Amino acid sequence: MPERLRRPPGWAAGVEPADLEGGRWDYLILSSRAWGAYFDPRAWTRPQHSLHYRRYRELQEALEPVAEFAPSWDRAGPLLTVYRLQGADTAFRTAQRFLPRDATHANHEHLATPDGGPIRFSRRGQAVVFKDYFAPGRYRISLRTRPRSIRSWVHVATVDAREIATLALPGSGQVELPAADKYLFRVFLAAGCALHRVSVERIGTTP
Asked: Which domains are assigned to the chain?
């Protein structure tokens, strides 16, 4: 589990839609160097080129662009467009129970759990991240650890790095999620503790 989970650069037209829509990835970067030629039918030399055009067009129309980097006098290269991977039919949860295998990021290689067992923290500052889409409301966040971690923290933020809250645990704490969005839960435990589960459950709605 690397600190920033990235898929190796590749060809977006060949990626299965389900792979992009599953919630594991947050952003897609498209380069005009990859899709530009397919937008000119005169450049199609194989039957599948029309399929590539349609796939790139579907991606550009379905996804929300959040940033664009165009060539300029001090930056050569293609046009790069960053899209947020959140579709109109995204399901927003009101409860989720994260297990160790659901962690998407870790800031230390020793936190990896290839066998699917608990995540064991061995030094100060280690953290793992869980993420999913949640509806707005007031939520209870609780950690199941062994032994009970006296010094535990959960940082809650959106995927675009907007800070929501920092909860000092053990046990459980409450946080207000202001809008339907994708949220990150970064968990810190004391050295010597193992994380077995993170529970996020809505206990009230926003007035």
From this structure: 12-84 (no CATH), 95-204 (2.60.120.260)
Q: Contact, 142 vs 152, CB < 8 A?
A: no
Query: Edge-to-edge strands of the sheet including 163-169?
Result: 105-106, 127-134, 181-188, 152-158, 163-169
Q: How far is CA 170 from CA 42, 142, 152, 173, 179, in A?
A: 63, 8, 6, 8, 26
Token pair 């020793």 in the structure block, residue: 110
Tokens read off for 62: 């379905």
Low-confidence ranges of the chain (pLDDT < 50): 1-6, 8-9
Q: Which of 151, 149, 108, 150 is nearest to 129 (CA)?
A: 108
Task: Write the pLDDT tens digit of every residue in 86-139.
Answer: 665 678 999 999 999 888 888 887 776 657 789 999 888 899 999 999 999 999
Checking phi first, is residue 184 left (phi over 0); if not, alpha (psi -120 to 50) or beta? Answer: beta
Token representation of residue 84: 């947020």
Of 69, 71, 58, 77, which Cα lies nearest the Cα of 29?
69
**Residue 191 near residue 202, CB atoms below 8 Å:** no
Amino acid type, 170: P
Check residue 53 and give its pLDDT: 82
Which residues are CB-contacts of 127 (< 8 A; sequence separation ≥ 6)? 106, 107, 155, 186, 187, 188
Distance from C-alpha of 176 to C-alpha of 196, rounded to nearest angstrom: 24
